[in-house]
Amino acid sequence: MTEAELRASGERRVFGVGQLVAAVRGLVEDAIGRVWVAGEVSNLRRAGSGHLYFTLKDDTAQVRAAFFRADVRRIPFELEDGLAVLVFAECSVYEARGDLQLLVRLVEPRGRGALQLAFEQLRARLEREGLFDVARKRPLPAFPRRIGVVTSPTGAAIRDVIEVTGRRFPATPLLIAPTRVQGEGAEDEIAAALDALTTPHLGVDVVLLVRGGGSIEDLQPFNTETVARAILRSPVPVVSGVGHETDVTIADLAADARAPTPSAAAAAALPDRAALGDRCARARDRLRRAALHGLERRVARLAQRREALARVAPRARLATQRARFEALSRALALGAATAAERERGRFEAAVGRLDLLSPLAVLGRGYAIVWKADPGTIVRRAAECAPGDRLRVRLGEGELAATVSEPDVHAPPRRA
Amino acid sequence: MDERSPSGTSPPSPDDLPFEAALARLEGIVATLEQGDLALEAALAAFEQGVRLSRRCAAQLDQAERRIEALVREGDGLAVRPFAGPEEGGS
Q: Is residue B25 within 8 Å of B11, Cβ to Cβ?
């Protein structure tokens, strides 16, 4: 177009900028107004006020969006860059900047339910904090003294728990903290019930957190951070049994043990009475057998000792020693006798020789021994005697008293 | 029924022990007797204890009487009261 044609094409009205923008805004609000828009979140910014500002875009265009705090609180999930959403917004113009703007009132995720998304986001966040770590899980007491139950006081869950605990170990007392288990604000009641039940003086040493099946909306309180943190700060282990077998809730992930149903939770908390009865019976049998066996062993040992004692008793020993003694004595005597025999032989032999050599034996051959009676000396020479000397004569047998009658008649002449 | 015993006092008699403690003690006595090192008097005493403990365990297992209570709001606080049953109470 030429300049002249451009000038002729529009109406020659002069708007102020503000006027123009306001006019456009009016047109937009009238012609479009509230509308659902599908797009992707980007450039998300959270102001200090709590309002959210982002850009909603698709492949071809983008538009700014404002999401005020009061409306933000309605949604259970968090907006994130890249999230595919459906927004319900008032289409308008932000006059101060002349920008097209969506004033967002509602947001839904696309491709998933809002609650499902909220669950996934909370799960990821708490998992990153380490709150679901296996190392945090506490073991359940083998023989609980008192079981706490957080649940609705009506409904199937509490009935199931009462029945199952009654079958397994009826002696264990239950303490129920009744609470709402669905609806707005139920998570605060559940948390308060958990806190109240675990005050130490009540003596509860394990808690069952249970409710029956329901929709994801019904189970929503068990998917909140409030309930998760209440479970984690419990001083005693918590067993969760929420919903149906296929439901997994944040409470299940935070709990120390997780059961598919309320009945299973009750069973997990208690030992089986029947199995324990068997164990007691076996212990009793072992007790009896051990005692009996012990007695038998002692009796046998006693008999053994008695025998051993008998073997070493003094009387027996004495008899043994006496026998030994006698045997030795006999041997000795035998030995002595033999020796004595030998000695006697030698003796007699010696005596025999002695006899032969004895002067007295000579006498038997006719010789005599003559003594002078006074002094008693043996006379060898006749010259030693004078007539009238008294003599004793010893013969081979007997003795004589004699007197010298004559002097030595055969005395050789004395040599001068 | 299963109150915790006070610390610092003499050991509770077999007739007062909670199930878990009684069973543990019973199995301990059985193990000791099976080893066979006890003098005769000690063995007899242990056996007698074992029998009492086993009766205590059996009694607790056989106990069918239940104690089911609930925390209820009373005045400013909470009290423990017998549980009326799933039929009653609000949701």
A: no
3-state secondary structure at position A128? helix
Which candidate in A143, A160, A169 is best for mutational testing of the B interface (most B CBs within 10 A)? Answer: A143
The pLDDT assigned to A124 comes to: 96
DSSP states of A25-87: HHHHHHHT-EEEEEEEEEEEEE-TTS-EEEEEE-SS-EEEEEE-HHHHTT-SS---TT-EEEE
**Distance in angstroms (rounded) separating the CA atoms of residues A60 and A38:** 13
Q: Which two tokens stand for residue A171?
A: 């002696």
Residues A67 and A49: beta-carbon distance below 8 Å: no
Give the pLDDT band (50/70/90) at residue B91: very low
Q: Which residues contact A289 (CB under 8 A, 6 or more apart)?
A: none
Nearest CB partner across the interface for A159, out of B58, B86, B90: B86
Residues 256-295 of A with CB under 8 A from B: 273, 276-277, 279-280, 283-284, 286-287, 290-291, 293-294
Higher pLDDT, B27 or A376: B27
Q: What is the pTM of this model?
A: 0.65
| Whether the bond into A375 is cis, omega within 30 of 0 | yes
Instruction: Provide, as residue numbers in chain B, all residues whose Cβ is less than 8 Å from the Cβ of A174.
Output: 66-69, 83
pLDDT at A269: 95
- Do B58 and A280 lie within an 8 Å CB cutoff? yes
> Tokens 């009540």 correspond to what residue?
A202
- The beta-carbon neighbor of B69 closest among A152, A175, A279 is A175
Least CB–CB distance from B29: residue in A273, A287, A298: A287
- Quickly list DSSP for A287-328: HHHHHHHHHHHHHHHHHHHHHHHHHH-HHHHHHHHHHHHHHH
Query: Could you tell me if A325 lies within 8 Å of chain B, comparing CB atoms?
Result: no
A333-382 residue pLDDT tens: 777 777 777 777 777 777 777 766 666 666 777 888 888 877 778 888 88
Name the burial class of residue B56, with classes exposed (0-12), middle (13-18) and buried (19+) by CB atoms within 10 angstroms of its CB: buried
Helix (H, G, I), strand (E, B) or coil at A250: helix
- DSSP E strand stretches across A81-200: 84-94, 99-109, 147-151, 174-178
**What ipTM did this prediction achieve?**
0.71
> How near does any CA of chain B get to the CA of A173, in Å?
5
Given an 8 Å threshold on Cβ–Cβ distance, is A287 in contact with B57? no
